[in-house]
């Protein structure tokens, strides 16, 4: 019975913003990936990582000029990277750290379907 409950809960727990709060485009001048729909930040890099299953996952790297550490930030399940921009700017400034962040498959501009925790467990 517990497994049925967790499967039902997982279906309601994972809901990416629809529509996504940002897009990814290539800057014509630099050739680098940038967020569209979000204010530009000169110290932010946008990357698209390819997973084993062929999905493209969006990741960002927020650089602080005096950082000695890098924080890996995994956002909550009802957000995407576009909604986290202001938080990342504040964290970077106040903690003086670089921040590496990423979207999950099916969130934001990342391709693929949302994977529920029960599906991850079953794949292990």
UniProtKB/TrEMBL annotation:
Q: Which InterPro entries match?
A: AB_hydrolase_fold
Judging by the UniProt lineage, the source's domain of life is Eukaryota
| PANTHER family, sorted | ALPHA/BETA HYDROLASE DOMAIN-CONTAINING PROTEIN (PTHR12277), ALPHA_BETA-HYDROLASES SUPERFAMILY PROTEIN (PTHR12277:SF167)
This protein is called Serine aminopeptidase S33 domain-containing protein
């Amino acid at each position: 019975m517990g497994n049925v409950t967790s499967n039902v809960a997982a279906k309601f727990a994972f809901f990416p913003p629809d529509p996504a709060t940002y897009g990814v485009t290539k800057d014509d001048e630099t050739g680098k990936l940038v967020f569209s729909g979000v204010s530009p930040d000169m110290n932010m890099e946008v990357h698209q990582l390819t997973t084993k299953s062929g999905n493209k996952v969006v990741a960002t790297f927020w650089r602080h000029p005096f950082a000695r550490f890098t924080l890996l930030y995994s956002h909550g399940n009802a957000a995407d990277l576009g909604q986290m921009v202001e938080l990342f700017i504040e964290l970077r400034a106040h903690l003086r750290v670089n921040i590496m962040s990423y979207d999950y498959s099916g969130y934001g501009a990342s391709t693929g379907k949302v994977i529920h925790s029960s599906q991850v467990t079953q794949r292990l």
